Amino acid sequence: MTTADIKDPTDVSAMTPQEKELHWFRTVYQGDSMPQLTVRAVIMGSFLGGIMSLSNLYVGLKTGWGLGVAITACILSFAIYKTLMAAFPRLFKTEMSILENNCMQSTASAAGYSTGGTMVSAIAAYLLVTGNHIPWPILAWWTFFLAALGVFLAIPMKRQMINIEQLRFPSGIAAAETLKSLHSKGTEAMEKARALGGAGLFGALVAWFRDAGKPFAIPSHLQFPGSLGGFPLDKWTIQFDMSAIMIAAGAIMGWKIAWSMLLGASINYAVLAPWMAELGAIDTTKLGYRSIVSWSTWAGASLMVTSGLLSFALQWRVIGNAFKGAVGVFKKSDSSGEVNPMARIEVPATWFLSGTVLSGLGCIVILYVAFGTTIWMGIFAVLMTFFLSLVACRATGETDITPVGAMGKITQLFFGVIAPANITTNLMTASVTAGAAGSAADLLVDLKSGYLLGANPRKQFIAQFLGIFAGVLVVVPAFYLLVPTVDSLGTDQWPAPSAQVWAAVARLLGNGFNALHPTAQLGLVFGGLVGLILPILELLFPKQKRFIPSATGVGLSMVIPFFNSLSMFLGALIALVLEKKMPTFAEKYIVAVSSGIIAGESLMGIAVALLAASGVI
């Protein structure tokens, strides 16, 4: 035997699956030594997640983006509990443990992120296509079953992808590091919390003065002087939006996507739209965002779909490993016959089987009863969801990007072939795949945090499942409030870009290519080609990658107003300058301040809508 044959006892990569699990249990696990799944953790997570589900719904209807809530929830929870302890020492005697806060963020993530994604995509697209809302009891059960299906599908994937393969899940690592920082550096935590609170107040005041107009009003937009094609610039949506949300979203989004969006918006609204108006493809009698986007959606949607599917296909190693790992998902870790202590703390396989069957049946029944989808198509949609969730979760673990859109489009394309005339089936079967895949990936990110902190995964799973109820209770009625009719979508207030893309794909597959205006057909083709060319250029010229526009950014800019792209560009520019000039300050405050602005303005925007609907203002 040579020294090369001797295993390093601390080298996890050289261990067998059972050795990896036992090593973690002996050296990291501390779920039996401190509180974790407590009533206060679940209540705090449900409260914060419910609030942030409103914020995500608001932002999603404006930009199509969903913002993670875990890190924001951790900061807020820590600060709120510290404040409660100081104000009411007899009621709140001890601070929450690091594992309680980890459980809390799992509940908050389920409530704030896992339940709302389908609202701004498939559900809003259904409203665009049919003109009618889904009845609220159906929508509530649909949202619940989708989120639950994703949570249960994640059970076997956790042991394979986190325990055995040790995939990174970068956002999970970031959340774990945030919790460690909060519980070791209380001063820094409170500084971040104060920054978040102050930014939230600023965002709320902007929304109040703009939307409520009391005691004085600020305009919703600032107009730029000049004209284009004989029309004022604001008719082409070229103006400045008096909202801080998009600036904050741009700061989080990143520089490349933001400058790509401004580039795409400039081409679309300043060049292509006036040209199409001259050709008669855009109705100039009602010139504005809605008339322009009715044409530009096809190029933008095509660009995003082809780039997303190509980028997904280029990750062939990830896809191959996902399906190879599907065997390991159901393989028991311990083959030696020894008692594995992990069996006591991992989520049992019986929970996976019973939960998947029940939530899957719920989806199939609603597809059949409410949307007229045949039973066998519903079964096939749920089966596809399992395999595509495998791929989505692995992509999240390796790249920190969950290709929910690509998963939905694959299902749309498949059902476009086997049910070409049924637009509703096309949308709602894809909703199963995208909704469950997003929920499963979200849970695995949280479980990665727990794994690094030594949490009990079974208790963390329960916390995540409980969060679904809070999310459904908040986000479903909020959707009806913000979007009372189909006329609310595709407007300056609610561009709903994600829903526009979903609806466009469903209509195209249902009505056929020839139903489009000839210039829209050309836009569809050229948009698709650009969506293929940009990712290929990034592969061919990796050193120049930062100069090549993001296909996602360019495509997204064609389905939202110009002023949104402009605001996000400004936010990303501010963040870039701070990161270059004041890196420590930027790392400490950009996410906290941006999250505060988004939460404050969106929540006040919803509050003003409620007050207006009730006749108070």
Features:
single chain; 617 residues; mainly alpha; two-stranded antiparallel sheet; globular
Summarize the structure.
The protein is mainly alpha-helical and 617 residues long. It is built from 23 helices and 4 strands. Strand 2 and strand 3 form a beta hairpin.
Description:
The protein is mainly α and 617 residues long. It has helices at residues 17-27, 39-63, 70-87, 98-114, 117-130, 136-164, 170-184, 186-212, 245-253, 255-279, 289-314, 316-329, 342-345, 349-371, 375-399, 404-418, 423-453, 457-482, 497-511, 518-540, 551-557, 562-581, 583-613; strands at residues 221-223, 227-228, 231-232, 239-241. The protein is globular, with a radius of gyration of 24 Å.
Question: Mean pLDDT score, rounded?
Answer: 84
What would you call the shape? globular
Number of strands: 4
Question: Uncertain runs with pLDDT below 50, 5 residues or more?
Answer: 1-9, 333-337
What does the radius of gyration come to? 24 Å
Q: Strand order, biggest sheet?
A: 1-4
Helix content: over 70%
Biggest beta sheet summary: 2 strands, antiparallel
Structural class: mainly alpha
Distance between the amino and carboxyl termini: 83 Å
Secondary-structure element order, N to C: HHHHHHHHEEEEHHHHHHHHHHHHHHH
- Give the count of helical stretches: 23
Estimate the strand proportion.
under 5%
Question: How is this fold's topology laid out?
Answer:
Layout: H1 17-27, H2 39-63, H3 70-87, H4 98-114, H5 117-130, H6 136-164, H7 170-184, H8 186-212, E1 221-223, E2 227-228, E3 231-232, E4 239-241, H9 245-253, H10 255-279, H11 289-314, H12 316-329, H13 342-345, H14 349-371, H15 375-399, H16 404-418, H17 423-453, H18 457-482, H19 497-511, H20 518-540, H21 551-557, H22 562-581, H23 583-613
